[in-house]
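Project standup — Tuesday

K.O.: blocked on the structure for the chain from last sprint. Re-posting the sequence here as requested.
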Amino acid sequence: MFSRAEGVHFPRWVIAAVVLAAVGLVSGFEIVDRFLEVRDSTAQGNAVGIAGPPCPTVSRAQFMAQGLQTRWVSNFNGVVVGRRFGEVSCSEVAKAGGMGVASFPVCQFNAPDVLAVRTAKGMFYFRPGVGRKASILVTDGAPRCILAAPDWS
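H.V.: unblocked you, prediction finished:
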């Protein structure tokens, strides 16, 4: 048996280097995983193909006065979207010019009629209309609504 004094001792810098290497390896795997997730989601979300005129907006007062209601509510990465009709498909899309790690949410609707969107910046109301496709793109906490939804073509 070895006594404590006879055991193998490593300098502290060797132990620190091993710990840092392990942390770096795990962090590297996480970054690559996030990059691949955003890349795949970007292809699915097809944000490049979302082009069209902006959706008509309504104020909260108009929304309430017209008796508009949202029957279906979805929460995607902190963005809460209510719609009156139809289906929704949401994904994360890489920010242009980035390495694919920074991203923003995109939700596409096949026939929402009315959209109410809550983000960290507040409530926003849109009225695409009955039977019209629409997409919500949320960049820097502010939603934009576009009258187009390639996922539902």
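K.O.: great, moving the ticket to review. The helical segments are 12-45, 60-65. The longest strand covers residues 122-129.
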